[in-house]
Amino acid sequence: MFVTGFRDVRDVAAEQAKVDPMYQFTIEPLAGSGGWEIAGYNIAFTNSALWMLITTVVLFLFVLGGMKRELVPGRWQMVVESFTGFIDDMLEANIGKEGRKYVPYVFSLFMFILFANLLGLMPLGVFGLHPFTFTSHFTVTGVLAIISFSIVLLVGFWKHGLHFFSLFVPEGTPLPMIPILAPIEFISFMVRPFSLGLRLFVAMMAGHVLLEVLSSFVIDGTNAGATFGLMVGLPSFILMIGICALELLVAGIQAYVFALLTSLYINDAENLH
Amino acid sequence: MPQIAQLAETWSSQVFWLLVFFGITFFVIGRGMVPKVMETVAQRDSQIAADLGAAKAARDAADEQEEAWRVRENENRAAAQAIVAKAKDEAAAKSEKKLKAAQTRLDKKLAEAEDRIAEARTAALTEVEAVAAEAAQDIVSRLAGVKVTKPVATKAVKEAMTHG
Prior knowledge:
Chain B: One of its GO terms (molecular function) is hydrolase activity. The complex is a heterodimer. Chain A has helices at 2-16, 47-65, 75-94, 103-121, 138-160, 178-223, 226-270; strands at residues 37-38, 41-42. By secondary structure, chain A is mainly alpha-helical. By secondary structure, chain B is mainly alpha-helical. At the A-B interface, strand 2, helix 2, helix 3, helix 4 and helix 5 of A face helix 2 of B.
């Protein structure tokens, strides 16, 4: 988050004249909630939790604007309806007619991740706020991935019982190949939640680190004098603008990939072979 | 990397608040609001489909009526043409009949006239014969002093006239 970067620079640069690109991912308890606990587990209301709350509220307001239920939709309603239609179409294309019952979950998942990614990119530092992208934490993306994976397992065993294990034997496999193929399929199946969670976490973190590093180039280059400012600071700044646009794209793509893979995995469970 | 460095102290808070807020998102937005939004879309789609269906039905009805009108029109035209043709035929037959009648009348008149002419000619010829016979009797008695009877004279005249 480059805007955060400026703030970090103000805080840190004064003492060490050095930018820590990882500082933006630090979790801090807010308003003295550091000691909150449930059954011995810490549940401090952190900056991460605050941005989850903000994401939920913004998403709620966004969808609320599409609830006017007019026959001839306004612009806002049109946007919300195109999002629900997008998820609906994706599920119908990947799973079929039975896919419609997963629209609430996949819509929540897609929009929650999308809004979290986009809100984390907002230049709110201008107003003195400190944006935090909680999707750059694998504790968060991991839980989302585990929820998706659990749904796949639940649906699979609910619908097909123990027959669900035949997922590990691709259709038309010759009998002698089964002992070799089944473990490979099993491993690739078990890797799914990890790849799902890590992909989003890595993509978001990498983008934010890159922006932070570039912002440190801009600041340090400019501080080092006019020549360095023009040679290093200005190109870095121009590059940052491009990377910002790219990050907006990545925010959408990663949310889409997460939702798409979830729907593909659900398809495996829903339509076994 | 704070994600790993702070893992032990923060994971429970992260998981807890994520479940709270994603749960709210899923149950309030996903299950509460999204179905209503989609219902509106479905309602609109069905409304549009119904309107399109009604428009199509109306168009079909219009096409049908036009077709019926065309058939009726063609029938009427054919009937009118038949009437015209019939009238023409009748008129032609009538005039032909009239012409024929006039022709017969003319032919009859012509024949009568010819008969009359022939009669007149015969009458004239007989008179000429009689006159010629008398004249021949006269001439013969005067020139030769021979008294010729009327039948002989007539016979001679007839002979002379036929021979020219």
